[in-house]
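Follow-up to my post from last week.
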Amino acid sequence: MAATRGLFGSSLARKYWMALTGLFLSSFLIIHLIGNMPILFGDQEAFNLYAAFMTSFPPIKAVSYLLYGSILLHAIDGIFLMRQNKVARPEAYVSYNGKANATWASRNMGLLGIFTLLFLIIHMRSFWYEMHFGHVPTMDIEGAQVKDLYTMTIEAFHQLWYVILYVVCMIMLGFHLSHGMSSAFQTLGLNHPKYTPAIEKAGRYFAWIMALGFAIIPAYVYLQHLTA
Amino acid sequence: MNFTINVWRQSGPEAKGRIETYPVSGISDHMSFLEMIDVLNEQLINQDIEPVVFDHDCREGICGSCSMFINGEAHGPGRSITTCQLHMREFKDGETITIEPFRAKAFPIIKDLMVDRSSLDRIIQSGGFVSVNTAGKQPDANAIPIEKADADAAFDAATCIGCGACVATCKNASAMLFVGAKVSQFALLPQGKIEAEDRVLNMVNQMDLEGFGNCTNTGACEVECPKGISLETIARMNREFLSASLSSK
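User reply:
Got it. Predicted complex:
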């Protein structure tokens, strides 16, 4: 019988949870980005109906709790890992040439993750909280009263500082994902000379398509407001 | 060639260390890095300064003793080499070179540049072996058919010399490349299958107990490994551990 802390306490287990929650959160980004596309086309009704659907359809509500859980687990596990890694080298090198052998993103996942978490708190306070617990004015769509999240979003993105915050945070997210995506596959043991180069490439494409996609929305809304 | 050497001096495990600066002169560009330190130590002895303590043994890149962190990299600049295989021609005349011990909680400093890497030995003791009787009549080497690709991959993993460069270079002081290699060298062979589950569980457990850090998949270990051990070995360890955790009795 092996002495083991198995799938909860061991160092590898902590990595599996990071990878699984990270991949799940990334899959949500795709849905979220597609759902946000109506903002780019100025389609108020489509966006508001999507927002109402996402907050009321029971199966999606169930998945959303899984999502909140994943955010918490990914963040707490990540902070724990950062601490563990810090303890593993009590005395730092006087001279450490990190860029000689690893990418900047891979060396700064914790920092990038903390920025992403802070962004998420601001983002969820601004929209998720308002949508669920705040007072969002409603609009009439074919006789039904639907919360007008669209107008709230557009107004939020008329503030320059807010748009800059979003764009900067999306760049951070891009770096985080550019390493995180392929890293998750490696952690789960999915490394093969045939597929790994493709996974790494796809991971980087995914990261920057997501980052660019989400950054364009506030930037576009702001520029449209300027020229209006 | 002449150099300015910034070297870590620490009188004992509990003592506080510091960087000391010494000039060294009359170095040939054909000298290995260790030979340069030999010359430096001769010069220090002549000045009644205690010579710099460092680990070395084979001086041909197979023992893995020469643990040094040179100019911010394990075994210095250059790829797939140990410190003894690093030559002074890789440096510019007059350059300042910073030399530190490998730093990790699991590699306590004994003195100056010498560290205690027995944590790696304890990981091996926890499962890095196959329980076959090697006394008496030897079995025929080709009695068990093994696919060439698997035999080659197992051999590649087995070339790990346990030098600890992966730990030293990892920003998290993680030993996963070492453990990955030592798990892989048996996981790929039929002889290793019998104890595969216990092996990976025990070795990972011991690795955690020794206080090594975790893996962020930066890939720095693979770049700095003198034997070119690949990240694939870490992925194999991850697979083995996952399946062993789920299915072990």
